[in-house]
Amino acid sequence: MASKNLFLLAGDGIGPEAMAEVKKLIKAMNDKLGSGFATDEGLVGGCAYDAHGVAISEADMAKAVAADAVLFGAVGGPKWDKVPYEVRPEAGLLRLRKDMELFANLRPAICYPALAASSSLKQDVVEGLDILIVRELTGGVYFGEPKQIIDLGNGQKRGIDTQVYDTFEIERISGVAFELARTRRNHVTSMEKRNVMKSGVLWNEVVSQTHKARYSDVKLDHMLADAGGMQLVRWPKQFDVIVTDNLFGDMLSDIAAMLTGSIGMLPSASLGAPDVKTKKRKALYEPVHGSAPDIAGKGIANPIAMIASFAMCLRYSFGMVAEADKLEGAIAAVLDDGLRTKDISSPGMTEVGTTEMGDAIIAKFLG
Ligand SMILES: NC(=O)C1=CN([C@@H]2O[C@H](COP(=O)(O)OP(=O)(O)OC[C@H]3O[C@@H](n4cnc5c(N)ncnc54)[C@H](O)[C@@H]3O)[C@@H](O)[C@H]2O)C=CC1
Ligand SMILES: CC(C)CC(=O)C(=O)O
Ligand SMILES: [Mg+2]
The domain 105-268 is classified under which CATH number: 3.10.450.50, 1.20.1420.30, 3.40.50.410, 3.40.718.10? Predict the structure, then answer.
């Protein structure tokens, strides 16, 4: 069987702790199921800066581009707060997204039945929740130029970021959202701020045109992004697929994370366009959370977001749908058994560390 080449970038903070659980899972799949994964590892973020003075080396960038899929942990932390902006840890992740042209970031927020009572929201608000945020990932204010701080010479400085979207960027991300909606509950909500932003006006127009031209069978709603944030915590089950820009998608998915119990639960897939000849798409899989410096090194991080990101990798990069379903089922089953990391723990549950949670999920998956 041809190898499935995975490039692992664990990063900083809890990144390596969560990635360790996925490495155990990959080894178990190779040893017990003959899954045929070949892995290589590189440095990204603060650890890459410490080693090479950049947030990702050219050699590791080349490996990421060449891999069938990249698994990414998390980057950043207070240790690197003062490094030059261009080489800050987060720049490594942004470069991966941009250079690999990973324009579509899928962030599913699913409330596992066992966690419905432990959300900070009322049980009936989150029970059965299954929404998908489709975040545009290579445009908007994260990448728009100019992006600078200028000295105004009067004791004042001016910080500038630029929100830019072209028609094709909005068209292709809304196409992804409509296609995915057709496999779900056939409903897309587009979020922008057309009341204050020109890019929001264009976003709204292009999503509507794309809908009319190719996806009129899908229900489409438009919502201002601030109201969308409010509706997400008021009655999130009104949504199926949310499509939004890079910045709003970042913020709305952190909000959605708390509907599921913890940000330690939310996986994501960042996908490029399918290659015209091979149909393969570049892909990077990462938890929605960051490096969590406050809990790094304590062995208490929730590895579920990272493991569920690997499940998305099985599904989207390798077509291993049965294995992906089984892995997601193993996560649900372990939660049903009452196992909880600290972030999702509640009275009467069995609190476990990162390693125990990983081991339990792997055992269920193989069992
Ligand atoms: N994709 C990435 O690599 C991201 C990196 N970051 C970076 O991470 C650093 C910390 O950022 P924060 O704003 O604190 O966000 P964060 O997501 O790292 O942490 C926010 C809170 O959630 C908790 N948390 C996060 N993941 C968890 C997990 N798996 N299990 C249990 N608890 C978890 C943390 O302990 C913390 O209290 C910053 O340098 C930031 O730039 C932030 C977001 C994404
Ligand atoms: C570059 C990242 C640190 C931004 C972020 O928070 C995210 O993509 O979730
Ligand atoms: Mg974020």
Answer: 3.40.718.10
Is pLDDT above 90 for 2? no
Ligand closest to Cα of 296 equals: 1
Q: Is the CB of 362 under 6 A from ligand 1?
A: no
Residues with CB under 5 A from ligand 3 (ion): 250
Closest by Cα among 257, 317, 315, 259 to 290: 257
Please indicate whether residue 254 is annotated as part of the active site.
Answer: yes
Is the CB of residue 202 below 6 angstroms from any atom belonging to ligand 1? no
Question: How far is residue 136 from each of residues 6, 190, 211, 278, measured CA to CA in Å?
Answer: 24, 12, 17, 24
Q: Does the interface predicted TM-score (ipTM) exceed 0.90?
A: yes
In the predicted structure, residue 71 carries a pLDDT above the cut 60: yes
1-103+272-367 maps to which CATH number? Answer: 3.40.718.10
Backbone angles phi, psi at 276, to 5 degrees: -60, -40
Extents of the domains making up the chain = 1-103+272-367, 105-268
Q: Is 316 a catalytic residue?
A: no
